[in-house]
């Protein structure tokens, strides 16, 4: 039975938000034959989220036994997933009904793709939704195509926090970059340069806007420029040495 792994990095202060994320996962209906697992890696010296995750039978929790940061936390979670596909879900975000099935359908229709990026709305503190602007067309994206936009802007035109990708591809690229921030952007940029993907026209997840979002922290803002420079340097290096990746090798239900 093919497995879809959902990967979440979290810390002790995210308990209530993580519970809501888990409820949005529990409401997902996967295609017949698929199984869901939720791999949560807690960044901290001791576990605080076990009680939250205990209510979800599909969840598994590991602890870093230290404060390692989001990039390393995500990479540790990546070592523990068993699915051939990984969906990234931040601890404070929510999936809408049908989100995971939409991504799986794209892989089923296009077995050569390595990643699926989904549309999102911002979920404001008052419960209203604000569309997340997309500066790129939806549908099939050839290898390298989306990075024409990335090379001209600070980041790619999609939110990398809601990505579904082939596990083998993420591992082949070394997982998340050891950037102080935008580590997911660095990984996606490398993957999108080498492999084709799909951008869904459907809105399938919500970015919860709140005061404790990582991107609102002073440290994140202070280090963002250096992290963006790392993303652009990595992309330029890939193009200069002419790296290429072979076609996807579908397995299981893909």
CATH class: Alpha Beta
**Backbone CA Rg:** 17 Å
Instruction: Identify low-pLDDT runs.
Output: none
Q: How much of the residues is beta strand, in percent?
A: 15-25%
Q: What separation lies between the terminal Cα atoms?
A: 11 Å
Biggest sheet character: 10 strands, mixed
State the fourth-level CATH superfamily: Spore Coat Polysaccharide Biosynthesis Protein SpsA, Chain A
Principal-axis shape: globular
The CATH topology is given as Spore Coat Polysaccharide Biosynthesis Protein SpsA, Chain A
Mean of all residue-level pLDDT scores: 89
Structural class: alpha/beta
Helix fraction, binned, reads: 25-40%
Keywords: Glycosyltransferase, Transferase
Family: Belongs to the glycosyltransferase 2 family.
GO molecular function, one term: glycosyltransferase activity
Protein name: Glycosyltransferase 2-like domain-containing protein
Can you characterise this structure?
Belongs to the glycosyltransferase 2 family. Residues 15-114 form the Glycosyltransferase 2-like domain. Pfam families: Glycos_transf_2. Helix content is 34%, strand content 23%. The longest helix has 24 residues, at 218-241. The chain has eight helices and ten strands. α7 packs parallel to α8. The model has no long low-confidence stretch (mean pLDDT 89). 40% of the residues are buried. Strands 1, 2, 3, 4, 5, 6, 7, 8, 9 and 10 form a ten-stranded mixed beta sheet that branches. A hairpin with a 5-residue loop joins β6 (115-123) and β7 (129-131). The protein has one domain (3-241): Spore Coat Polysaccharide Biosynthesis Protein SpsA, Chain A, CATH 3.90.550. By secondary structure, it is α/β, with parallel strands linked by helices.
